[in-house]
User: Fold these one by one.
Assistant:
Number 1:
Amino acid sequence: YPKKCLDYKSPREDFWMANLNLKFSVRNKSRN
């Protein structure tokens, strides 16, 4: 794996995971 590919992929994955966590938090708040 070239280092550039890893550096490019990591921020995107972190952003996607943050988005997912945000959606779950909002859902939990709505339920309560």
Number 2:
Amino acid sequence: MNSKSDIELFDVAIEPWIPGAIQKIKKYCTEGANPNLVCMNASTTRGPVTKGLTLLTHSVHEGAFRVDLVGHQIRNKQLSMLTYLFENGMPYDVSKLSSAVRQQYIPAVELLLAQGIDPDRPDDDETMLMLAASLGNMDIVKMLVKAGADVHRYAFDNIEWTASFVANKAKHKDVAKWLKSQMSKEFFAKQKEVVASRNPKFRNLYKNATSAEDLSTDDIVNKLEQWDKRFGIKVKKSDGCSLSILFEALPENIEEFWDEVIDLCPDIDDNNKAVLHQLETKKSIGLWWD
């Protein structure tokens, strides 16, 4: 037989998007209500409740993803409720670990890693270890490494852009030093070999990891090296997603050259008249990737 708390939980959980629902769900669960009760016949403002689903499953499908129950507990540092949700089957993914790292909420990071989440986020360039390193949080950095995060992973196809590099760039010297101590001599030798093979003229592009979603730093540098041989260029400024170039000589056929520019930087096409005018009058051009 359902308790009063079970019934009250059902009334709230079938419409978890309503303001205040999270607080009530927490209250009733604390009082002993069972989130795994099977849904009864009912309807909501969004349609009928699917009979046979548990309240927890219904909440996930019909509103919890909007309310983001797990994310809410992480943001508000509600460890007991977060633990309760996991114990009762609430789904989670790698984005929640990323959120916990970003919030620097260590108990949630520990809890999520204990669920078996891969700390390396293999499908993304920037790992959670890099995120923790950029924040300078030594405890989380060590926690992620202990859980299997690869200290040798690098972003943007740039062998220098490791978590240690990110920490150093953010001026977290102690974190950078510790991460470096965990890296192998073989990796450092490979780094040195790759860096030595690069054109020193474009060193800052690698230092700033100038790249785009579908263009690595190497891709951009390869094109710049072609232009340098043909016209002579100097990179005046670069950051992670833009650079400005000064030409020693202009291309004889500006229109043909402009097609090359658009191929390298499609975003420039939205403002091509102004950029083309700058090239023709000042022998300079700014490139950017959104």
Number 3:
Amino acid sequence: MGNTSFSNSRGFDLLNDVDPADWPAEHYLRNNIAYGNNNDLHNVGSEPIDDEDNSWHLRGLNASDFLSLSRDGVDGPRGPDGSLPVLDFLRLAPGSSAIDRGADVGSPFNGMAPDLGAFESGMPGDFNADGVVDASDFTVWRDNLGAVFSQSDFDVWVANYGLTTEAPGASHTVPEPAALGLVAIAALAPVRGRSRTTGVSRAA
């Protein structure tokens, strides 16, 4: 779940090496991107597959959906925690058709739904994905409380109120909920908190 395969001979190879005694061992694919591979899905049909909300279900995914397809810097030093270098490589561009097109699998996400691929775009609390965390995001949260958002998402909105893509360090006063016409209420939906397995696959 949440992987990006780019410029490989095989994007996702579904050859199953699970002992038949342990079957059914169905392939479960969600929120993945396969782009620029010789074959995005290999060995399809040889094993059970449950694949929804992946890039191969979209029409017209192209280079403009990404900030960059340049590999420059990918072999740079990792962060102190072992994380990958922070680059534009394979991150989704604003307006990408892969933004908010994934399935909610219990992992944190920005916007109305998870993005496809290894990297989540946007900012925490920017529920309408307009590049600023402001009162309009409160309206989106309020209107979708219980169906998409929970009380914890309100807390994220408060913590990030005033942030913009142009000035990520800015801080602003959060308006009182009463001023927005609603007092925050208890969550009606469970908190999304499971860890997200992500990765970028690139042939050597």
Number 4:
Amino acid sequence: MSGGVIARYDPNPIFGADGTMQMRVLPGVAGFAAAKAAFTKSSRDSLYVSFEYLFRAAPPGTYLTVSLSDNPAAGQDNVLVATLYPPDPAAAPPLPGSVTINPPQYALFSGEFPRGTLDLSVLTYVELRLYGSGQMTELWIDDWDPVDCVQTNCGDIGTPGGVDRTDYLYLLSQVGRSSADPGGPATTDCLDGYSRDGYLDAGDILAFDSVLHDTNLNVCADNGSALAPVDSGGGERVNVPYHSLVIAGKSTATGDDQLNFLRYDESCIGSALPPGPAGNYGQYRGNGRLLSDPAQQLYQVHTHQGIIRLSDVQAIVPPRDCTFAGKRVRVGMRVVGQGVDGIPIADAVFHPTDPNRLYVVPVLVTDAGQTYRAAARLVLTAGGGVCEYPYRIDALYGSRPIAGDGCTNTVPPNLSVCDVSRMREIEIDATGQYLFVTAAKAENNNDWVLCFRENNPTDEKRFLLTALNPQLVGPAGLLYARANADRPESLYVASASNPTANMIANVYRLTIQRSSQGGPVTGLSHTPTADVLAVQGMTQVTSILQRPGDHSLWILGYHAEAVEPNDVEFGFSDPLFTTPALASAAVTDTSAAASDLICQGIGLPLSAALSIRLGDMDCDGAVNVLDINPFIQALVNPAAYAAAHPLCDLGNGDINRDGNVDVLDINPFVALLQGG
């Protein structure tokens, strides 16, 4: 070291228990303090390095370098893999690891780095070097360790012998865990091989389905090829019954995807139907979120094929390699040979009044040699050319992480303490003015709702969810709900992190604040004592829906026994062990009871949507003169309409989609009767 001191606090004077390594660069010396540690050997092409850090004194010019080496001597044969700067001390709320956070809180540094030409067959060496600029500089390091996950990036996470259904079952048994649980990243890094967000949740289940959908796929293959145009889907069209709750999930027996249908009284309708398209051996895998357009057509997100319209099983948003404003944009995940390129679309939402405007998340953007995740506005088009058919990119939401943006403190930037790029779900408000995007990374308190002005993507606001409620981590099941007589305009969201076996899953209500009615969004508010809906009989929430008529909620999810890692072995033919569950609640409720969902062999529900036909007031599947009297009844006596038509929804009469059944719906209803 040059002007530096390495010491050990044991016990730690603030945190107690285990000791801490203290790195200091003394005042009056523009030098460094270096520590080089030996870890177990590794034969992998890449390995993870992780440690916790807390800056105690960080004057200008302070930074830390992280290097791999195969030489035990300090400063010898080092390969620089990352540079870490102090987190922004002016950030609000204060960032973990910063000198200003009070009480002190460690930040986690965790990254995967290539071994390159280093020979780590004997030992692996990692060197940390703290640089100062003449003033007292101090950094604490704890839990310094590389994590070696042999084979897991290929999906072979259960019994060795290749990627198969047993690996899928093992991953499913660990859903609800996060790297914030006791044991830290070591509990999830070897399972969270796809999303890399520190949460084991539905996103990992669907990503793993990419392997089982295409049995030729090896996700360890080279992913550097460009995306080529793909086919537009294919398969049997799905005849979705009107006036039903549509549930996308998996068969208990086979694990294949299926669509189930419930009446509004929650009774099962008919047989389960396969979604499209099928895999290379006829298997149905990788089908995720359901969504609808303003005309109430239904679509489903698929990990390989993009976004599929169910009525004709055609891909309206197939994977594409695009260019927008000089940036390379990859929409969706494409199979290239035996590997994959890009990342799957996780969620999408249509503009509330424009069926040709669609917002998807995430996309991969490469700008100035740096790749990051963003949301994209797509315009569906019949034009020609790559990324002009069947859509073109019209806007990007989310910017390239750069030093000085108040969030980025590492090179490469994806290792920063603040990370808002792990986008997972998206909603839009009733007037199409604002987009709400959840982003989550378990490490360093990175659970966010990002709010973008639809027509000005640079107008972005960030709301830290744990600042609203410390339990709201790993946001899942995002729902936007317009204002009604019982609740103001709100977001509903659950937590994907629920490893306990107490059979309670919480749904959190977040009130959207605006400067004036219909004006700019200024914030989110939440009262933990009043704005939490505790759902008994459910451990994981996968989807939240609101009925348009009475504004009540449906909460879809499942329950399963908590399984400790390595406590169970699964067989190839074992069925799914999850039990689907469904709860209903008023928007003002603070508790609800879920009932087990028994319908045509569904074992794991993943998404839900409503199948609606506007104007069909008697729910016979047609809009005709027989709907006139029920429509009038809905206008003048909604309660009587609900009693006379229990399997219908009052929202069928909200023809203009403004959230109310009133005189403004009369002319649109007449137009429907006339075939308009």
